[in-house]
Hints:
Elements: H1 7-31, H2 39-68, H3 75-104, H4 108-126, H5 131-146, H6 150-176, H7 185-188
Helix pairs in contact: 1-2, 1-3, 2-3, 2-6, 3-6, 4-5
Amino acid sequence: MENKTTLLQYTMTNGLMLGIIMIILSVLLYILGIIPDKLGKIIALSLVNYAVIIVFLVIVMKNYRNKILGGNISFNTAFLVGLLTIVFGGILSGFYGLVFNTVIDPAYMDRVYEGLLNWMYDMYSNMGLSDSQIDDIVSRYQRQWDNYTPVRTFFSGLLSNVVAGTVISLIVSAFIKKNPPPPGLGEQL
């Protein structure tokens, strides 16, 4: 009996690998003491994360196309492979983030927040805003921070994974799709 890999098995396995890669990246940043506490760092870290995800998805989709489907894959199937892989990876890395922020280092997000506040004060001061204007802006961020919980962050992270996964999968699928030639076309050439 032939052992066939289903789409769900394939995406769960690769999602697990993607989640592990994202966790390793997070652990490395933590060990190196890199905290996303400035806009430049946040952008740079986001770009690195997205680059890893895109490269990983290209590999996963091409492997599914070439090794599982025999060289052809529709746009819809490629999209589904990418989206499910990102969702499963996001669930795993989200659980890691939840454990990290509740058990491993519960004060980590407070350090991130303090760094962001310091950066905001410096940025707005350099823009020439008065202390009262800066305090007004910072108080709005403080109200948002007052609603922070690791569980809420987990669910908002899942939502952002689905949104980002949809966009990334749409783009990558457009390049990976490969439909079979129409019947009889190969015979005419």
